[in-house]
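Researcher: I've got a protein sequence and the SMILES for flavin-adenine dinucleotide. Could you write out the 3D structure of the bound complex as structure tokens? I'd like something to compare against our soaking experiments later this week.
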Amino acid sequence: MSTLATTPDTQRAALTILTEEEKLFQSTVRRFAREQIAPHVREMDEAGVFRKEIIRQFFELGLMGIEIPEEHGGQAGSFFQCVLAVEELSAVDPSAGVIVDVQNTIVNNAILRWASSDQKQRYLPRLAADTVASYALSEAGSGSDAFAMATRAVEDGGRFLLTGRKLWITNAAEAGLFLLFANANPEAGYRGITAFLIEREFPGFQVGKKEDKLGLRASSTCELILDNCAVPKTNVLGEVGKGYKIAIETLNEGRIAIGAQMIGLARGALDHAIAYAKQRKQFGKTIGEFQGVQFELAKMATEVEAARLLVYNAARLRDAGRPFLTEAAMAKYYSSEVAEKVASKAIEVFGGVGITKEYPAEKLYRDAKIGRIYEGTSNIQLLTIAKQLLGAKG
Ligand SMILES: Cc1cc2nc3c(=O)[nH]c(=O)nc-3n(C[C@H](O)[C@H](O)[C@H](O)COP(=O)(O)OP(=O)(O)OC[C@H]3O[C@@H](n4cnc5c(N)ncnc54)[C@H](O)[C@@H]3O)c2cc1C
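Model: Sure. Here is the predicted complex with flavin-adenine dinucleotide in place.
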């Protein structure tokens, strides 16, 4: 647990001052990302496949079970550490960042909070050791309006039979466990939505088509097909009809980490631009000697820092058990704007080579686009912020 969360008000430090434990964790992930992931980023982007070997290393390093207690094989770390990990990985490859993000901040997080002790015994050790997880809420007809889902769960003795299709499911190609939402009582509207823990091998469950995407190409995004998928009642997460609450609360936390993915991406783009500005010569000087270029880099750095403060603050609030709904929405909204802008500016600093695949800026620009779409589009974040400002219901 972060010591900042327990520090008395008078001794509270700046948000970017890390504890010794956080510093060590951050430098370990940073080194791993630079040494083990960076050499494969381009090849994984082109192939649209994330290397299994790197996922195995995520588990070995404890990055897939950061908040899972030691008794279940995890690291007993903080949510803030999840944010640090996602930021560091995303500075090198945002696809790496999202794999760790979904595992920790949505699936593990929901299980830690809502699962029965039997479910925790069964799944947490696997999630910490070798099982990738997915979070399956969206469908073709229900994206922003997620609770309009058409997937149904029908009670059948000691089990539920689930039928429907999920779309856009991150990590699905690699996942062994799916936290999936279906409506068990459509007459009750959103109050029928129920969360299920589904193992890949359950009868009637199938991972379908994988999307060929603009960015974040190495991260798998697939359709899921449920055809009378038999799920034991012991695999209902939380209570029947409480899935909407689980979905809302986990996404509120998850979007802080999407903010972390975006600040990592933006920092990566800025670092590449700075390195290039120091060595590219025009008019007999490095382009970094031109004030026009310096000012662009300075503006990029300022916006990355502002976004980082929003993300760190939301994460610290979450770890301190304080309300963070508005701050999380602001962090995700602003960081994704900054990521897109900074990656675009980075391409301009590179000039013509910036749009070629020889240099990393164009990939980060493509990767940035998703930040304004998943885990609630920018409009949905703005709606959340505005509701808090205006005190509106709904
Ligand atoms: C790469 C990728 C990975 C994803 N991973 C996952 C995952 O792991 N699990 C999962 O469940 N889902 C996942 N998603 C789905 C994602 O969360 C949805 O795409 C997103 O919520 C938007 O839904 P939609 O695509 O149906 O767009 P729509 O909801 O159709 O929105 C289209 C446009 O309308 C706007 N809009 C909609 N409603 C309103 C409103 N009330 N007010 C103002 N504007 C509005 C939106 O802002 C957007 O600009 C992923 C998507 C992608 C592309």
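Model: The mean pLDDT is 96. Strands lie at 133-136, 152-156, 159-170, 177-183, 193-199, 205-210, 221-232, 236-237, 281-282, 285-286.
Researcher: Great, I'll pass this along to the crystallography team.
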